[in-house]
Amino acid sequence: DAKTTQPPSMDCAEGRAANLPCNHSTISGNEYVYWYRQIHSQGPQYIIHGLKNNETNEMASLIITEDRKSSTLILPHATLRDTAVYYCIVRVAGAGNMLTFGGGTRLMVKP
Amino acid sequence: GAVVSQHPSWVICKSGTSVKIECRSLDFQATTMFWYRQFPKQSLMLMATSNEGSKATYEQGVEKDKFLINHASLTLSTLTVTSAHPEDSSFYICSARPGSRAGELFFGEGSRLTVL
After folding, report:
1. What residue in A sits closest to B108 (Cα-Cα)?
2. pLDDT, block means (10 residues), chain A with 111 residues
3. Strand residue runs (E) in chain A
4. Most buried pick, A65, B2, B87, B114, via CB within 10 A?
């Protein structure tokens, strides 16, 4: 799996958009970008994934650059409950492929 | 979304005893499940891949005789920590993916093991 680079921590004001960057300059053509988050003492939670087009769901939006070397996860209106460690992972989609977790970004949403 | 459940959510045991952790996929079948371990303030580390009906595949440095994995059905995988020691105290998390939803891995709530 290609390696990702994320800032170790970020702060965001409650109600504002949280923009979490991820660099994956060595991503290959068949690798997807996945985002998961882990709230303290819980298992990771799937947020969103994409290949090259921007994606949006009820939780977040994923913006992938045209060269696919970086992406941004956007939480449009952050709440205190969004405080968590956010992991950006790239991997080939397919049965049996596990996820390799890096350090992630610790997002702190402040009132 | 798909649900993966772990039991127990936390357990305290004496050094030298064995502890079994169960991972169930509640609304889908999973031929493959993954077991992770997470120490405080660290990221998740993959321990092993559990395959239904066959032997698990362990990551380098993980002792297969200490961490016994059984995946006897398409909805249940178990991890048994044998002869537990305080250094085995950790947060153990399993994950699985519904075959119909390519790409998304769902995780259990985690099981916190404390060995005294």
Report:
1. A43
2. 87 97 93 93 93 95 97 97 96 74 95 95
3. 9-13, 18-23, 31-38, 45-50, 55-56, 61-64, 70-75, 84-92, 105-110
4. B2
